[in-house]
Amino acid sequence: MEQNGLGSLSGQAECILCGYGKGYPDALTGTLEFSWEVRGLYGKQDAYRLKVWKQGENELVWDSGWNWSSTQTGVSYEGKPFVSNCDYEAEVSVKISGDLQSSGRVRFSTGFLKRAEWKAVWLKQHEAAGTSAPMFRREFIAENIPKRARLFISGLGYYEAYLNGKRVGDHILDPAWTDFDKRISYVAYDVKEMLLEGKNVIGILLGHGWYGGLKKVLDPCFTMRLIMEFENGSISEVSSGSTRGWLCTSSGPIREESIYDGELYDARDEMAGWSTREYHIPHNGSWLTPLVAEPPEGLLEPQDLEPIRAVKILDPALVTHMEDGTDVVDFGCNIAGVVRINIREPEGTKIVITHAEILDRRGRPNRKNLRKAKACDTYISPGNPAVYQPRFTYHGFRYVQVEGLSEALRPEDIKAVVLRSDVAVRSRFECSDSLVNRIQEMCFQTESNNLHGVPTDCPQRDERQGWLNDLTVRAEEAVYNFEMARFFGKYAQDIADTQGKSSGAIKDTAPYLMCGKAPADPVCSSYLNLPWLIYEHYGIKSILQRFYPGLARWTKYLQDSAENGIVRWGYYGDWASPITESDKSSYGAGAVSKNTPIALMSTGFLYYNQKLLEKIALITGKASESEKWGRAAQRTKLALNREFYNKEKGYYATGSQGANVFMLYLGVVLEEERERVLKNLEKDIKAHRVHLTTGNICTKYLPEVLADNGRIDLAYALVTQTTYPSWGYMLSKGATTAWERWEYVDHGWQLEMASHDHPMYATISAWFYKYLLGIQPLEAGFGTFQVRPYFPIGLKWARGNVHTVRGMIEVSWEKKDICRDGQKQLIQVEIKVPFNSKCSFSLSEAEGEIMADGEIGSRVMELDSGVHNISIFLPQNR
């Protein structure tokens, strides 16, 4: 489906339409699934009814009839087959305590449902592109203004489209990065209001993007269809169906453009009005007929995730004019994006803008950790005032150095344009501890900076890949902070596209371009986590059905590679722990753990996969397979204990924090040994003066396991530590985004693997929502959810919310100075349970008394939709 729609139920609700389906290979085989949210009232849904009409003809294509059910997520369309390139309207009606409310009609559109329907070729420029950005132009006649007009377009790597001199849409760096040998995304735009009666001009500007890659250099190309429908029923089309009518040039102002290196823009070569109907083609041979390009191998499909957009504009925090005439600009925080600068310089003046995330000791941008990425944009002035913003690149930076200006840069003349996939912010968290709030801000900013069509590892250096090992733990943090259903649905397919047809093995990165190994490290359970999180948080069951065969094949690959139940191979394991816990001679600038065995991590994730597949198989109606996975998991559990548990000493492997906490998290520790392992874990943490020793994987599990096992105060002390290694230490060194290493690295041998904007240690953000607020789903789509808050010593209050498909969950709690009988601490909690949801509220502490809505309750209470005020009396001052 091409568009999501938003409508309202009498001003009190929204209907959110979600489309999940892919063309394999000739038709859209997935189903459109409807979800809706009722806002502004509490209560329970008694029944629902969905209707879908074909717009224009007002033909009813589906009427679900009244379903006496509380279901409001993942309702599959079961009407007449959709028609390609067609507008539809949907309406949901619900009955609530006998009252009927309706959303009103919500519009959505279809793309092309069969591959053969795309009757257009790919065009490229008439000569080798090199590094320039080619420009294409075509004139056409519209006898009348159409009643409907859709532009469908894709480019490899990036494109910008123009109609009559105006930019089409607000997407940046489109289309989203995919494995172009497997699939390519196209986007649909409503361009009716941009068309003129008579002569019109469409212009296309192309950039290399990821299509050029690092392993091969390919000429950028595009394909497009502009379909116009008129009142008299006629249809007219302008497309790249042939080279006829098209002209192209490589003589435009963008002389070089690269994701990693930046852009060279010579404004003296600008062709004013090149995409307008007033422009006259010069007779100098610069515009020639393009060539037909060999089409890419991948399927052409609708782009089914949020586009990259400019989501924020930042003013500089500080501009420093240096003695040599250059200017260094500090934007106050690490971001991903580009700068926008006003330039007033004589013709031919070269302005060079370099980017970095840290400064050297001279106060200049320190670019050594960018490795081979130049991260440099160059502008050559045309001699008149201009505003410059690069098009087909982005950088990770906090600082920029501007060279070539004749006068000191004024702060009002430069801004940072923040670019990311425009996923909505989902949640909010804050508490009485300013350090925790700063950690949350740091985590949020780090994740935000690494969402660019794929979840990248970093936005600045010559990498920017979607690493699956980091994502195994990072994904939950992302899904708590942002609306990730569409983004992660797309990325799960990217992972599937790396999977071997015969072996079932996936690769370390997706799309697979230049980094990582094949097969992937066994810790790459992100392949399973993404569909599971979409199901768990958004109630989309079909995502599990769609990916189950691939998830099973990857897990079977790991299972078959085991020796006596142990997966003895792997590359990364618990990656990048503190340098004292790492093998300094290992790859990744000493990033492999020396204390947490790779075999333990690899086998642990085999067990993790088996247990998760046991649940997925059962949910998707494969009971016998569920039992099979359960039996396999039991065998792996026995192997882990046989191989790694030291019964004499009560710990796993070397007794490292990572080894013990991972086994506890997985639940493989025998019940009679559990407390011994916990005490050894606690002992090791205290032996390190309440510091962690874990890497990218086990750091997520450490505070969770401690909280779940009655050590909330120790967990909180770890989280709020301010000396190395800790999140507080990062902040003390000026960090605004989480680092790749626990160490502050600005020089030396670690610098090649020392990103200062790396989301693998941003995973702690999920802990704030899951434990300090206590919000966790118990039923798919938060139909039933848990609120089980923890109240560590030193934290006075916490509050926040999580937006779910059913509505907003809000939780706040505060400790009061009033004590009951002089011994018990009073904590007041308020919980807002959305419409048609249920909340299971419980205490994390071993003992306590609850008074909910004025009545004494047990330690576990079931709360219906509404606002609930709860008083808790704890046995001691917390």
UniProtKB/TrEMBL annotation:
<dbReference type="InterPro" id="IPR035398">
    <property type="entry name" value="Bac_rhamnosid_C"/>
</dbReference>
<feature type="domain" description="Bacterial alpha-L-rhamnosidase N-terminal">
    <location>
        <begin position="146"/>
        <end position="311"/>
    </location>
</feature>
<dbReference type="Pfam" id="PF08531">
    <property type="entry name" value="Bac_rhamnosid_N"/>
</dbReference>
<protein>
    <recommendedName>
        <fullName>alpha-L-rhamnosidase</fullName>
        <ecNumber>3.2.1.40</ecNumber>
    </recommendedName>
</protein>
<dbReference type="InterPro" id="IPR013737">
    <property type="entry name" value="Bac_rhamnosid_N"/>
</dbReference>
<dbReference type="InterPro" id="IPR008902">
    <property type="entry name" value="Rhamnosid_concanavalin"/>
</dbReference>
<dbReference type="Pfam" id="PF25788">
    <property type="entry name" value="Ig_Rha78A_N"/>
</dbReference>
<dbReference type="Pfam" id="PF17390">
    <property type="entry name" value="Bac_rhamnosid_C"/>
</dbReference>
<dbReference type="Pfam" id="PF05592">
    <property type="entry name" value="Bac_rhamnosid"/>
</dbReference>
<dbReference type="InterPro" id="IPR016007">
    <property type="entry name" value="Alpha_rhamnosid"/>
</dbReference>
<dbReference type="GO" id="GO:0005975">
    <property type="term" value="P:carbohydrate metabolic process"/>
</dbReference>
<feature type="domain" description="Alpha-L-rhamnosidase concanavalin-like">
    <location>
        <begin position="321"/>
        <end position="419"/>
    </location>
</feature>
<dbReference type="Pfam" id="PF17389">
    <property type="entry name" value="Bac_rhamnosid6H"/>
</dbReference>
<dbReference type="InterPro" id="IPR008928">
    <property type="entry name" value="6-hairpin_glycosidase_sf"/>
</dbReference>
<feature type="domain" description="Alpha-L-rhamnosidase six-hairpin glycosidase">
    <location>
        <begin position="427"/>
        <end position="771"/>
    </location>
</feature>
<dbReference type="InterPro" id="IPR013783">
    <property type="entry name" value="Ig-like_fold"/>
</dbReference>
<keyword id="KW-0378">Hydrolase</keyword>
<feature type="domain" description="Alpha-L-rhamnosidase C-terminal">
    <location>
        <begin position="774"/>
        <end position="852"/>
    </location>
</feature>
<dbReference type="GO" id="GO:0030596">
    <property type="term" value="F:alpha-L-rhamnosidase activity"/>
</dbReference>
<dbReference type="InterPro" id="IPR035396">
    <property type="entry name" value="Bac_rhamnosid6H"/>
</dbReference>
<dbReference type="InterPro" id="IPR012341">
    <property type="entry name" value="6hp_glycosidase-like_sf"/>
</dbReference>
